UniProtKB/TrEMBL annotation:
<dbReference type="InterPro" id="IPR013970">
    <property type="entry name" value="Rfa2"/>
</dbReference>
<dbReference type="GO" id="GO:0035861">
    <property type="term" value="C:site of double-strand break"/>
</dbReference>
<dbReference type="GO" id="GO:0006289">
    <property type="term" value="P:nucleotide-excision repair"/>
</dbReference>
<dbReference type="GO" id="GO:0006284">
    <property type="term" value="P:base-excision repair"/>
</dbReference>
<dbReference type="GO" id="GO:0006260">
    <property type="term" value="P:DNA replication"/>
</dbReference>
<dbReference type="Pfam" id="PF08661">
    <property type="entry name" value="Rep_fac-A_3"/>
</dbReference>
<dbReference type="GO" id="GO:0003697">
    <property type="term" value="F:single-stranded DNA binding"/>
</dbReference>
<comment type="similarity">
    <text>Belongs to the replication factor A protein 3 family.</text>
</comment>
<dbReference type="GO" id="GO:0005662">
    <property type="term" value="C:DNA replication factor A complex"/>
</dbReference>
<dbReference type="GO" id="GO:0003684">
    <property type="term" value="F:damaged DNA binding"/>
</dbReference>
<keyword id="KW-0539">Nucleus</keyword>
<dbReference type="GO" id="GO:0006298">
    <property type="term" value="P:mismatch repair"/>
</dbReference>
<dbReference type="InterPro" id="IPR012340">
    <property type="entry name" value="NA-bd_OB-fold"/>
</dbReference>
<dbReference type="GO" id="GO:0000724">
    <property type="term" value="P:double-strand break repair via homologous recombination"/>
</dbReference>
<protein>
    <submittedName>
        <fullName>Replication protein A 14 kDa subunit</fullName>
    </submittedName>
</protein>
Length: 122
């Protein structure tokens, strides 16, 4: 199996996780809860649907706001995170999670215009 960083990552929301089991994904959501152990947390997408994220190592920082997670979707529909990145608000401009979610729906409705896999010509 190709590593999560070497393969294309489909951008998904919570309702798209079941179709992407054992695939590398990129998920953006708002932190809902962090488990006391710091080894997992839940995110809410633009439709307020929840996605669970599990980490290999406990968090070493406080996590809040909008977070992007890259990882593999498990059979349980949980994202097994390889990396995460917290979005910082710049100059009071908040990330519009609902608009991002609408863009995801368009990307998935028209895959011929928004391919996730890159082809190379030799």
């Amino acid at each position: 199996m190709t590593g999560v960083f070497e393969s294309p990552k489909t951008r998904v929301n919570a309702s798209m996780l079941p179709q992407n089991v054992s695939k590398a994904v990129c998920f953006v959501g708002r932190v809902d809860r962090v488990h006391p152990t710091g080894k997992s947390f839940t995110l809410l997408d633009g439709d307020e649907k929840m996605a669970s994220v599990e980490l290999h190592e406990p968090l070493d920082e406080e996590l809040s706001g909008i977070v992007e997670v890259i990882g593999m979707v498990s059979n349980k529909g949980t994202i097994m995170a390889s990396a995460y990145n917290a979005f910082r608000e710049e100059k009071g401009i908040a990330f519009d999670l609902q608009l991002y979610n609408e863009a995801l729906k368009i990307i998935h409705d028209f895959p011929q215009y928004y391919p996730f896999e890159v082809t190379t010509s030799n």
